Amino acid sequence: MGSNKIRNYVQDKMDNAQETISTILNSSMRTGGEGDNIDGIKAICDDGTNYPKYGTLTRSSDTWAKAQLDGTGGVYANSIFQSMYGQCSKNNQHPDLIITTQAVYNSVWGKMTPQQRYAQSTAHADLRAIGFSGIEFNDALIVVEDDMETGLAFFMNSNYIELVVHADRNMSWQDFMPHLDEDAKTGRFYWMGNLICTAPRYEGQIQNLT
Questions:
Q1: pLDDT band at residue 20, thresholds of 50, 70 and 90?
Q2: 188 near 20, Cβ under 8 Å?
């Protein structure tokens, strides 16, 4: 630091902090809201079997808060995905994103003809523009989440999913504070928000896929 610096370690630390926050949020979005995690897709994509409540809603009585859940899974077949896709659809509403593991993605890829694998519509141009690629299943883009637990696939309708962030805690920065017992300073980033779904009925999850 200061005029005698050789390398800007502060900038290195800031860059590392950004990567760390991204990793923490990504991991948190895959949870059911346990501990300090946000209410992730496990909590959203459940019918009350594993998460009887979504937020303050009790799924046994507030049945509209139930998502679609296939806890059986099995060896991948197109019919398994098609069944879940249909359950999550109504009229012109349907999943537009399927998130799964590399192993399940490979199984889907192997079941499709070359024309199906490489046909790319303009419907997912926004995702492709930021680096996502995948197979299209009906009107949904299948993408891989490298850190997802084995055997899972989440069917998402992004029209009803939103990441809500507190205006005063959107990566807000607390300036450096000196340590009492060493010649060093520490700063902090703050983030507060949640992943919300306004219509869980259009979301779904398949477990135990092989």
A1: confident
A2: no
| Contacting residues for 28 by C-beta, under 8 A, at least 6 apart | 37, 38, 40
Identify the pLDDT of residue 25. Answer: 84
Q: How many CA atoms lie within 13 A of 125 on its CB side?
A: 3
Task: Give domain limits for the chain.
Answer: 2-161+196-206
2-161+196-206 classified as CATH 3.30.1930:
yes
CA separation for the pair 137, 63 (Å, rounded) = 28
- Residue 73 carries which side chain, given as an amino acid letter? G
Joined tokens for residue 133: 């690629």
Number of Cβ atoms within 10 Å of the Cβ of 5: 9
Is the pTM higher than 0.90? The answer reads: no
Higher pLDDT, 2 or 40: 40
